[in-house]
């Protein structure tokens, strides 16, 4: 699947030095804004996010000219139902999740299936920073500097067979580490899926970090999916299994409420959720509402994947 970066997405000529300076500035800024959280709407409890800096992260080719969401908001206001259904639960209850050692099973329609330690899985993939606009189906949005690498690069290593048409993902299932799994809010493990061309798209990444640090548990440590043109629930956290399939896989939210959450879940201001509009959103830390953009602002890069499809039907 050949792909050329849209020139609009190319980052400016930027030296590593200036980039590191810029990042330090942003991180300091985030700390200051975090202290001023009274201005925001969400009341935050104690946010637990140990700082574990990642080294050898290069500036990515995709960036965004919008203010980054303060670190404290991005790590304190989360959805991770395995750690509770309140937005502050994941940051409070993530402490039992053991992310080292970690391994991922790659199976299904691949020539080289197997269970791989996280280290082995990451080894061939240089880490880069990608600043993405994120949009939750609940109509809040964020701008996050992820650290990760293209999912497609990983899939190619395991050699999808000609039968592979979809990719299915699963989160760890262990109620001792993920206490929310002792309640039947969803059918566990959390499951998500992509069509193979969506999975191979260069904007689709696996993230291991954010804000230059390892992912906090509440954000899906040690490995989570990020697909910036889709609603946040597609971004499955704490992945232990990646399966290439011939048939469209079952996904947790679609199973739970098929009229509300489709398989595709592309951000679409014209298709309301049955219980609320999707035409606008509120950025965490702001009061005003912003207009929601088709494909979350990534239409130039991804709309062609859906050419000819009725997006109101395949929502
Ligand atoms: N395993 C798992 N992954 C998940 C979820 C979840 O409950 N469990 N919530 C999803 C939803 S609804 C959103 S909006 C994003 C939130 O990611 P963040 O908390 O890092 O912002 O994670 C997604 N991934
Ligand atoms: Mo979400």
Provide a descriptive summary of the structure in words.
The chain has 315 residues and is of the alpha+beta class. It contains eight helices and 13 strands. A hairpin with a 2-residue loop joins strand 8 (205-210) and strand 9 (213-214). The radius of gyration is 18 Å and the shape is globular. The structure holds ligand MTE and molybdenum atom. Residues 79, 136-138, 232-233 line the site of molybdenum atom (MO).
Please give a quick description of this structure.
With about 325 residues, the protein is of the alpha+beta class. It has 8 helices and 13 strands.
Feature tags:
about 325 residues, Sulfite Oxidase, Chain A, domain 2, 8-stranded mixed sheet, 5-stranded mixed sheet, about 20% helix, about 20% strand, disordered N terminus, binds molybdenum atom
Please indicate the percent range of residues in DSSP E strands (runs of 2 or more).
15-25%
CATH architectural label:
Alpha-Beta Complex
User: Roughly how many Å apart are the termini?
Assistant: 24 Å
Q: Helical content, roughly?
A: 10-25%
> What is the global morphology?
globular
Main sheet overview = 8 strands, mixed
> What is the count of distinct domains?
1
Number of helices: 8
Low-pLDDT regions: 1-45
Order of helices and strands: HEHHEEHEEHEEHEEEEHEEH
CATH topology: Sulfite Oxidase, Chain A, domain 2
């Amino acid at each position: 699947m050949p792909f050329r970066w849209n020139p609009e997405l190319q980052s400016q000529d930027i030296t590593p030095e200036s980039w590191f300076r810029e990042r330090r500035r942003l991180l300091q800024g985030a700390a200051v804004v975090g202290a001023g959280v009274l201005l925001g709407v969400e009341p935050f409890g104690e946010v637990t996010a140990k700082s574990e800096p990642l080294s050898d992260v290069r500036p990515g080719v995709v960036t965004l000219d919008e203010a980054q969401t303060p670190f404290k908001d991005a790590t304190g206001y989360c959805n991770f139902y395995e750690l509770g259904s309140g937005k502050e639960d994941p940051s409070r209850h993530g402490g039992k999740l053991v992310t080292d050692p970690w391994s991922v099973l790659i199976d299904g329609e691949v020539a080289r299936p197997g269970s791989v330690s996280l280290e082995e899985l990451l080894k061939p993939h240089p880490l880069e920073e990608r600043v993405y606009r994120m949009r939750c189906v609940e109509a809040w949005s964020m701008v996050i500097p992820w650290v990760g690498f293209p999912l497609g690069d990983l899939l190619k290593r395991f050699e999808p067979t000609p039968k592979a048409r979809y990719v299915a993902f699963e989160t760890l299932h262990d109620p001792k580490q993920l206490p929310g799994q002792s309640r039947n809010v969803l059918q566990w493990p959390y499951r998500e899926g992509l069509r193979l061309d969506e999975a191979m798209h260069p904007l689709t990444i696996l993230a291991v970090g954010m804000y230059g640090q390892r992912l906090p548990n509440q954000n899906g440590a040690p490995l989570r999916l990020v697909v910036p043109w889709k609603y946040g629930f597609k971004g499955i956290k704490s992945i232990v299994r990646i399966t290439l399939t011939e048939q469209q896989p079952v996904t947790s939210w679609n199973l739970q409420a098929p009229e509300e959450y489709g398989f595709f879940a592309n951000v679409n201001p014209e298709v309301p959720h049955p219980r609320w509009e999707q035409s606008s959103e509120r950025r965490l830390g702001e009061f005003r509402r912003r207009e929601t953009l088709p494909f979350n602002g990534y239409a130039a890069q991804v709309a062609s994947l859906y050419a000819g499809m009725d997006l109101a039907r395949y929502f």
